[in-house]
Amino acid sequence: MKLPEATNFIEQIINEELEAGKFEGTGNKIQVRFPPEPNGYLHIGHVKAMCINFAVKDKYSGKLNLRMDDTNPAKEDYEYVNSIVEAVKWLGFEYDKLVFASDYYDKLYEIAEKYITDGNAYVCDLSAEEITATRGTLTEPGKNSPYRNRSVEENLKLFREMKAGKYPDGSKVLRAKIDMSSPNLNMRDPVIYRIAHVEHYRTGDKWCIYPMYDFAHPVSDAIEGITHSLCSLEFENHRPIYNWFVERSGLPKPLPRQIEFARLNITNTLMSKRYLKKLVDEGFVRGWDDPRMPTIMGLKNRGVPPEALKKFCADVGVAKAYSVVDIAQLNSCIRDNLNENAERAMAVLNPVKLTITNYSGEEKLEFEKNPAKEGSGIRLIDFTGSVYIDGDDFSLNPPPKYKRLQKGGYVRLKGAYIVRCDDVKLTSDGRVEEILCTYFPETRSGSDVKTDIKAKGVIQWVDCKYGVDAEFRQYESLLKDEQYPDQDYAERLNGNSEKIIHGKAEPYLSECADDTRYQLMRVGYYKKCTDGGLVLSEIVSLKDSFNK
Question: pLDDT tens-digit profile of 454-468?
Answer without folding.
Answer: 998 999 999 999 999
